[in-house]
Amino acid sequence: xxxxxxxxxxxxxxxxxxxxxxxxxxxxxxxxxxxxxxxxxxxxxxxxxxxxxxxxxxxxxxxxxxxxxxxxxxxxxxxxxxxxxxxxxxxxxxxxxxxxxxxxxxxxxxxxxxxxxxxxxxxxxxxxxxxxxxxxxxxxxxxxxxxxxxxxxxxxxxxxxxxxxxxxxxxxxxxxxxxxxxxxxxxxxxxx
Length: 192
Prior knowledge:
Helix 3 crosses helix 7, helix 3 (54-67) packs antiparallel against helix 9 (163-178) and helix 6 packs across helix 7. The chain contains 9 helices and no strands. The longest helix is centred in the N-terminal third of the chain and has 16 residues, at 3-18. Helix content is 49%, strand content 0%. It is mostly helical.
């Protein structure tokens, strides 16, 4: 090997080892959040055609449990998902203010189209519009973190560990609806 090739190779090796990937800082996250919510994620004006009923909540929970749990867990808060915090960007908690501050139409658009280049896949052609709007309802009414257990895909179980608790949560939601109770979302002030 010539001396020049050795020096170029050494220089390239040193340059590559000097590159270090680090998580985005607070400022970078804030800028990206604003760009996504105000520019890149469409659907701000699209209203959810499904009323906020216990039946639509249950339908959303069912669709979520078939399509979304591998990354978001049964409760939408990454419970039991072994890689959620190691992805770049990390899988967000769906109860976070970053996610909850999206309009319903924006959440539908994210589920429909995915988010490139993150790991969020598009569901267009896999889920129909009613299923996606129902998932948006579920995202707006997520249960407490850990209350549904971990996805069976990570525990080796046959049935989802939280299946009974999912039914119980749905029953509680029906009872709240029957009694005229609503929950208020702290980030938007909208009733749930």
